[in-house]
């Protein structure tokens, strides 16, 4: 019975964090299916090792690790290269839902951010991690995490300002 | 960060795409797989402790086996013969080191005709029952060392011979 409660806690945890984890995983892939693979692998692995649910930095680190493992996989790389060669251009699947005109532009701007800035924004805005947690996940210093965040928001604001004016 | 509060608010207005039902199903399947794999088993911490116990017991058992093996297969001819004798005596087999079967004798020292009896299976069939009391002696010899082992034991044999009247 206790085990059931534990599982329910984990399911609740996934219900809350799943979309943000998926968004974070999309930082390494534009393919939603690949991102789901990464999240599934990382989340189940994290759960199996009986880590604390509250240790979110470790959970995101698990997602990052799974994503990097996947990137390193020769098989996956060959498959991506073949798919890219076949399609001619990479098809980017939407990462956000229910967007109006202004939000679409903002979402596109987020996707155009440099990866190192975008991942900090993803972790800070939608995953609500502290800079200390972000630093732990990305294996960078807190100052670096904070400065990347500032650069990213500055860039986004510059993009948005003409739109708002 | 106050300078960016407006941008932050705008960003928080974006809702990440929800998790697909397929991913939910895969996550639940992952939970179920672990449940099946570890149902009634130990937690990782207990598994580690149990693994250490198992390792310790295995090492102890291996040590005992090695020591017993060294004692059993000592190169001393005397002890080898002794061991072979023990084994042969206990099992009646010829597994002693270097010993080979050399003789088997059976001496009948009593024969007793117990008359006609009916077959236990076929009541109409008559049988003659003859009881032999014997002594059997088995002998092994090591051709290299000349050591020999002889085992003698009493035995009893009952022979049933069908009888027909014409």
Question: Please, could you describe this protein's structure?
Answer:
The complex is a heterodimer of chains A (165) and B (166). With 165 residues, chain A is mainly α. Chain A has eight helices and one strand, in the order H-H-H-H-E-H-H-H-H. Chain A has helices spanning 2-25, 32-48, 56-72, 74-87, 101-112, 115-126, 131-138, 142-164; one strand at residues 96-97. In chain A, helix 5 runs antiparallel to helix 8 and helix 6 packs across helix 8. Chain A is globular and about 50 Å long. Chain B is α+β, with helices and mostly antiparallel strands. In chain B, 8% of the residues are buried. The A-B interface holds A 3, 7, 10-11, 14-15, 18-20, 22-23, 32, 36, 39-40, 43-44, 47-50, 94-99, 102-103, 106-107, 110, 121, 125-126, 150, 153-154, 156-157, 160 and B 1, 4, 6-8, 10-20, 22-24, 26-28, 30-31, 34-35, 43-44.
Please describe the topology of this protein.
The complex is a heterodimer of chains A (165) and B (166).
Chain A: H1 2-25, H2 32-48, H3 56-72, H4 74-87, E1 96-97, H5 101-112, H6 115-126, H7 131-138, H8 142-164
Helix pairs in contact in A: 1-2, 2-3, 3-7, 5-8, 6-8, 7-8
Chain B: H1 5-12, E1 15-16, H2 21-38, H3 44-72, H4 77-91, E2 100-118, E3 126-141, E4 148-163
Antiparallel strand pairs in B: 2-3, 3-4
Radius of gyration of chain B (CA) equals 39 Å
Mean pLDDT of chain A: 80
The number of helical segments of chain A is 8
- How big a fraction of the residues of chain A is strand? under 5%
User: Shape of chain B from CA axes?
Assistant: elongated
What is the structural class of chain B? alpha+beta
Rg calculated over all Cα atoms of chain A: 17 Å
Summarize the structure.
Chain A has 165 residues and is mostly helical. Chain A has 8 helices and 1 strand; from the N terminus they run ααααβαααα.
Q: Which properties best describe this structure?
A:
heterodimer; A: 165 residues; mainly alpha; 77% helix; 1% strand; disordered N terminus; B: 166 residues; alpha+beta
């Amino acid at each position: 019975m206790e085990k059931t409660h534990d599982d329910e806690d984990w399911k609740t945890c996934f219900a809350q964090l799943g979309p943000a984890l998926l968004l974070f995983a999309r930082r390494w892939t534009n393919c939603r299916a690949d991102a789901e693979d990464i999240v599934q692998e990382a989340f189940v692995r994290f759960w199996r090792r009986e880590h604390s649910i509250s240790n979110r930095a470790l959970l995101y680190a698990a997602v990052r690790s799974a994503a990097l493992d996947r990137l390193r996989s020769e098989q996956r790389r060959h498959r991506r290269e073949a798919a890219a060669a076949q399609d001619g251009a990479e098809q980017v699947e939407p990462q956000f839902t229910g967007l109006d005109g202004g939000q679409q532009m903002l979402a596109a701007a987020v996707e155009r951010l440099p990866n190192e800035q975008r991942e900090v924004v993803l972790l800070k805005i939608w995953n609500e991690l502290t800079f200390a947690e972000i630093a732990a996940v990305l294996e960078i210093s807190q100052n670096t995490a904070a400065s990347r965040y500032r650069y990213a928001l500055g860039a986004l604001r510059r993009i948005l300002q003409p739109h708002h004016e | 960060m106050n300078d960016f509060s407006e941008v932050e608010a705008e960003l928080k207005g974006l809702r990440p795409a929800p998790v697909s039902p397929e991913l939910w199903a895969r996550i639940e399947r992952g939970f179920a797989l672990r449940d099946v794999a570890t149902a009634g088993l130990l937690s990782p911490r207990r598994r580690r402790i149990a693994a250490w116990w198992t390792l310790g017991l295995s090492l102890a058992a291996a040590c005992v086996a090695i020591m017993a093996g060294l004692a059993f297969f000592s190169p001393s001819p005397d002890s080898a013969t002794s061991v072979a004798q023990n084994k042969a005596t206990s099992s009646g087999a010829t597994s002693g080191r270097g010993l080979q079967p050399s003789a088997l004798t059976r001496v009948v020292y009593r024969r007793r005709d117990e008359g006609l009896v009916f077959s236990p299976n076929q009541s109409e069939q008559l049988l003659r029952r003859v009881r032999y009391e014997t002594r059997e002696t088995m002998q092994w010899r090591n051709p290299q060392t000349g050591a020999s082992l002889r085992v003698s034991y009493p035995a009893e044999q009952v022979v049933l011979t069908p009888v027909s009247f014409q």
